[in-house]
Design a protein that fits this description.
Pfam family, one: Peripla_BP_2
Helix content: 40-55%
Order of helices and strands: EHEHEHEHEHHEEHEHHEHHEHH
Organism: Novilysobacter erysipheiresistens
Radius of gyration: 19 Å
Distance between the termini: 54 Å
Shape: globular
Protein name: ABC transporter substrate-binding protein
InterPro entries: ABC_transptr_periplasmic_BD (IPR002491), Vitamin_B12-ABC_binding (IPR051030)
Length: 265
């Protein structure tokens, strides 16, 4: 076999991608936050969180390749590199970036053809959703909430998936910011002023509470609250920059947008 044979995945998206490519036998360690695919939690030892990792446990696995995500894992990567481990940290934030990530990961592990075919299939799925959305009678304004204390709006790939699904993210200027702290809404009433038709909540690590959102001062004037259009998108489906967001995540958004358009078209 070509490429690395003992891979540690510090986040969920490389695990999901490698399983989708049929290359799961190469994986020797995963993130404790991994939920997709569910079988990975039963088959692979959990050796990292998002901002921390069990460096000693990882080294015992004798990895020849470690895959992580974003500058937030820079310290983990540096420590492993100091121990002579080869590390790749991706830093993609867009839909195109996710597609390219899948192609690059496949190439790095010696499964380029399978990765390209998988990426092409994912792109066709997105194109199909976009084509269907273009035929909707109306496009709703959508507020995506990534966290509630403080309020944090959606990241770039989420805003792009909302657009592909037929909606328009109400904070496009915030979505362009890669760091969560730059997407904090200092004034919650800004959501009221932008009058979203749909509110999507994905509070990473806890259940979305639409009744709490609806009870916020002044939010009874928001069309989404008035019409009961507050919906949860499970965080593993949308907040990981990997295959889940491009399949189940965008599919869930598209279904919500389509139902809204039918009622309000």
């Amino acid at each position: 076999m070509r490429g690395p044979q003992r891979i540690v995945c510090l986040t969920e998206e490389p695990t999901e991608t490698l399983y989708a490519l049929g290359e799961q036998d190469r994986i020797v360690g995963i993130s404790g936050f991994t939920v997709r695919p569910a079988i990975a939690r039963k088959q692979k030892p959990k050796v990292s969180a998002f901002t921390s990792a069990k460096i000693g446990e990882i080294l015992k696995l004798e990895p020849d390749f470690v895959v992580g995500f974003s500058d937030i894992q820079a310290d983990i990567a540096a420590e492993l590199i100091r121990h002579g481990v080869e590390v790749w940290i991706s830093n993609h934030r867009s839909v195109d970036g996710i597609i390219d990530y899948i192609r690059r990961l496949g190439a790095l592990v010696g499964a380029e053809e399978k990765a390209n075919a998988y990426a092409d299939d994912l792109q066709r799925g997105l194109d199909g959703i976009a084509d269907a959305a273009a035929r909707l009678p109306r496009r709703p304004k959508v507020y995506f909430e990534e966290w509630d204390e403080p309020l944090i709006s959606g990241i770039q790939w989420v805003a792009e998936l909302v657009r592909i699904a037929g909606g328009d993210d109400i904070f496009p200027e915030r979505a362009a910011e890669s760091l969560a702290k730059q997407r904090i809404l200092e004034d919650p009433s800004e959501v009221v002023r932008r009058v979203p038709d749909i509110i999507l909540g994905s509070w990473c690590g806890k259940k979305f509470r639409p009744e709490k959102v609806a009870a916020r001062p002044g939010w009874d004037a928001v069309p989404a609250v008035r019409d009961g259009e507050l919906h949860e998108i499970k965080s593993p489906m949308i907040l990981q920059p990997g295959p889940a967001a491009l399949t189940d995540g965008v599919g869930a958004i598209a279904a919500i947008v389509r139902d809204w358009a039918v009622r309000h078209g």
